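Worked example (supplementary).
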Amino acid sequence: MIEQDVLERVLAGAVSDGADFAEVYAEDKRSTSAGLDDGRVEQVTSGRDRGAGIRVVAGDTTGFAYTSDLTEPGLEAAAGAAAAAASQGGGGVRTVALTASAPHRPNRVEQDPDTVAKAAKVELLNRMDDAARSYGPEIVQVSAGYGDSRKNVLVANTDGVMTSDEVVRTLLRISAVADGDTGMQTGYQSMGHTIGFEVFNSVDVEELAREAARQAITKLRARPAPSGAMPVVIKHGTGGVLFHEACGHGLEADIIAKGASVYAGKVGQQVASPLVTLVDDGTMPGEWGTLGFDDEGHITQRNVLIEDGMLSDYMWDFLRARKEGRPQSGNGRRQSYQHLPMVRMTNTFVLDGPDDADDIIASTPNGVYVSKLGGGSVNTATGDFVFGMTEAYLIENGEITEPLRDGNLIGNGPKVLQDIDMLANDFSMGSPGTCGKDGQGVPVGDGQPTLRVKSLTIGGTSS
Amino acid sequence: MSAFESELQIVADRVIDQARSGEQIEAFVARGGETEVRVYEGDVEHFVSAQSEGIGIRVIVDGRTGFAYAGTLDDSAIAEVLAEARDNVQFGTVDEWAALAEPDGVAVTEQTLWNEELADFPTDQKIDLAKELEKLASGADPRVRVDDSNYADAYGESAVASTTGIRMSGRENGCYVSVSTLADEGEGDDAETQTGFGFSVGRSPSEFDLDRAAREAADRATRLLGATQPPSKRLTVVLDPFVTAQFLGVISSTLNGEAVVKGRSLFRDRLGDEVAASIVTFVDDPTNPKAYTATDVDGEGLAARRNVLIEDGVLKKFVHNSYSARRAGTVSTGNATRGGFAGTPGVGCLAISLVPGDRSQEELIADVDDGLLVQQMQGLHSGVNPISGDFSTGAAGLLIENGTLGAPVREITIASTLQRMLLDIVEVGGDIDWLPMNSAGMSLVISDVTMSGA
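After joint prediction of all chains, the assembly is encoded as:
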């Protein structure tokens, strides 16, 4: 994308006014997406995003500028703007010598989506539309989307780091609307991986569509969700967002540094039930949050955040790690070249526990079983977090009974982590997610075995 | 966008000049820039200064649509975008209603959306504003510290041209300051932190009210100190103006013409029906210069206009772009939205408000015996289903007992359905506030909402 000698000159120029550190992050991304709605392929979209973000750090101040001009003069202009923004005086000449890192590719891409005919991509959507509509006459509307992208990333900095990576993504989503006497209900399914089009050799896209249709139709006979606190059982592979919100964000070192997390100062302490071991792992082959290198050129790794309930570490990016004089953890990420990196999760999940999933339900006299979660959000300073349930049932006398209408659940992170009293041995990863923080969205994965929280507040209307 | 003959218009014109026989082509070209300053503990934490530009091209042939975009305006890239958009046409399904917008003769309400004072505003004063706001917020109360204090501004310039005769360009700029606060109380295991925020927006920095932003940020955080989880019950809620604005945003998605023609709106067959309390008049008016999202043209280049969607509780109209209007057998209401050059126009409200009442929040609260003042909502994206109407969000606020504010509460949800909430609106406050979003806010009283807690 950019020649090494150009990078070395641009970086040296960026720190010539005395800054401590400079970095070039360049990306070239090609994407294809297709949307089907109301029985029609509405359009196929081709996109090209290409540019570089340049960061200059002087003391505690970061200057940042970006440009879509990847020529040497274009990069120099952006570097000049970033350096001026960070400018603290000083001066001197520094030379920068870059050493290219060996490639690190957790994912083997067999079929680059760029080489696949657009007709084959559109065909997936038509197949899903057919499958959802033929699932039942109650299905009155279907929308489906396909997306793929190939992003080449180059990171170089004045510490001599130079990495390049290629990230391929494929994504499919479907939403179905069912209509009945009680009004309309919706079902939603998605799948996303950091591998190529070969993923569709092993994924049954019709099954994904039928699942969305089944969910919508099931909810036509749903009753209002209860109101108040009760035990909640969350199905495996659907509830990773619980940990993402209940503690994931609160373990990000930038939030810790500002004293805006309930988990600040808690390393080495018991912060969760001893059943809980929480891991953030950017290296899991094919998962939605997987990267070879993070967006600061640091190799991704497996980080154990909570081990048997004990808080072992936070997640780190370059700036926060530098300030504490400790290694980065491969969690410096950004939405695009137009954004500054910050501490972000990758794939965040809880490891298997000792229990059997059926036993968990059978040993819950009354409560709620959530088999599909929506999004969530957290206030890291108070620990209060919410997440939506988009498919849920009552548990009565140890059995799953009636379906419930959509609603939010609310809990307090530190309390909920302690309240996890049963954890099954049926771990699976969940659906692809987009995590939002400070206006930036990045792809993340999550996963967990079936589990029970002793008490969570269900935000329904039925007493 | 303010009327302004942009050089981007030439780029857009050049693209549509290449249309072949039988092709409809639309080119949307945009360029923009931003400055963002974040201050922490008296120092600049980061300073972002950047520009970007790009083009999106839509091609329609015989009812099939193709689209492509690129984040650059290089001649070679533009040629590639046009070729890709043309190539993508063959994969679209024939849609008899697919067509570009055509000029509809509605006159543009001129607006002043460009401010020279902001365009010339010096960098060091931007930094000073963020530092000043941080100082004011942390000085407002001894329990308050500042998480971050920000100044941001942005400008945008765009042009659209189509083979159907649309030709429009303009530019706009704006700025805001914002501050996030933390309020602490107690020690050790009793230590507690609550959060707040404050902001001020303007076409130029001279319109900022830093004192108010700082005071509100401190008040929002300190008011919730000592909050506990109350038992569940049904009560009347008073939504704070900022919360009302978020609620109106959800309502607006049910009045979206695209959702209506595709059968996804719960109000799809209710035109002419009483869908809200008779005191409710819901207006979308981007020609109101007080609206933060005021604009003179919509995303397809048609004049933006005032539309009354619910009048005295009766559903009068849905909002449309040219496509959804054609399908519904009506005309565009000037409500095409466009998120930038990377997408095609959607449908949406542009600048929402309720016609305000005439009483203050204090007066509204005085009439509530058993209620909750909702200061913040959490999880609108996860617990609200605008197709089924189910409404459930996390909340925090203050209980209302016999007309006065009582104890702070947190870790609660409030729930009802959108259909019921509109009918259960008891009063619209007179405290209208134009917020940095596509909706104004005012206090809103809604009865019979379920609060879930312990």
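Two points are worth noting when inspecting this output. Chain B touches chain A through 76 residues (CB under 8 Å). Chain B has two domains: 2-223, 233-452.
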